[in-house]
Write a structure and sequence with these properties.
This protein has five helices and no strands. The protein has about 70 residues and is mainly α. It has one domain. Helix 1 packs antiparallel against helix 2 and helix 3 runs antiparallel to helix 5. The N and C termini lie far apart (about 35 Å).
């Protein structure tokens, strides 16, 4: 089931990539809804997808910030 959410997220991001404000909105939703390993895959896919779309690259920090969470101390 989770794979379907990841694939759906990618398709939504592709469809709204023409509008940076919608792209950011959907990217923030993805960060909230996806599991950590899915975020890693999404980050890799976004790096590939935005290679030809430099206007969207500045918004990738929304995913990178979530992945860079500090480890909890014990």
């Amino acid at each position: 089931m989770q794979r379907m959410i990841y694939d759906y997220t990618k398709s939504v991001l592709e469809r709204v990539s023409h509008a940076p404000d919608l792209f950011v909105k959907e990217l923030k939703k993805a960060v909230k809804n996806l599991l950590p390993y899915e975020l890693e895959h999404l980050n890799n896919w976004l790096n590939y997808y935005t290679k030809e779309k430099p206007e969207l690259r500045k918004y990738l920090s929304a995913v990178e910030i979530k992945n860079a969470k500090p480890a909890s101390k014990m």
